[in-house]
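Q: My labmate handed me this sequence with no annotations at all. I'd like to see what the chain might look like in three dimensions before we decide whether it's worth expressing. Could you predict it?
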Amino acid sequence: MSRNEKIVLWFEEIGKEDVALVGGKCANLGEMITKAKVPVPPGFAVTTYAYKRFIKETKIMDKIFSKLREIDVRDLKQLEEASREIRKLIEGTKVPEDIQSAILSAYDDLARRVGREPLVAVRSSASAEDRDRVSLSCRALVLPGSKILS
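A: Here is what I predict for the chain of 150 residues:
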């Protein structure tokens, strides 16, 4: 399996060249670990490949884009309503088994690395969110039973 087709990548496997695959925040964490040798708690990124597969394989991509084509992006109320509907659609859609399994396996590996069941922070890092004049909504896969700090 190519690197660009992995569901998860550990922080120590990524660097600044992986922004499109894991987002800027995770790419920077990888750089801190591998290049700057800064101590960073262990963790992993769910890749943009996993997200793209999720929305394509579950056939919600067309529904998302259809909803976005229906609205006037200058109308804040329409944007908020579309956002709520899209979020509900994503949260109500079952994650494909292999994607879910890869994420849960990485979580189990993380538990082994830290010696206990970890509490985790889940962050979205859309690949262009830190660029000027770009605003992207949160993208996340939520798995049942996860222990998450918010």
